[in-house]
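Chapter summary example.
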Amino acid sequence: MKAPFALVFAVLLGLLAGPAVAAPAAKAPPPGSSVEMPYLVAPMATDEGRLAGYAYISIKLVARSPNSAVKIRGKVPFIQDAFVRDVNRDMLPATGDPAKIDRAPLAARLLADARRIAGAAEVVSLEIIRIQVTTLRDTPQG
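The structure predicted for these 142 residues follows.
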């Protein structure tokens, strides 16, 4: 009698634990370990190198721990300055569509800036939350 009960119990346990074991959830950062940066205004250039508009970028830095987040918050002005210098040195391409902006290289560049300023051990990752594009209007001359 014990063998069938143990078999049923093992099967039920396997069914309940199966999906959790097969697809583990990504480990969320501890509460209080993210730092939202001020909006970043990035110029967008045409193929000819002329200013075409601006991309307003919302960014969140993920810190190693809540204590690291406090250290990063103390360096936000310096990190923001590095971000502004970076996007003005290498302007984003003027696509007119925020979905067409290649986020991965931009995020990698900005993450490198944040790690250089705040410390590589303190900044775990950088997340681009939203990009909003505003194009310049052509003004009639005359």
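To summarize the output: The chain has a mean pLDDT of 82.
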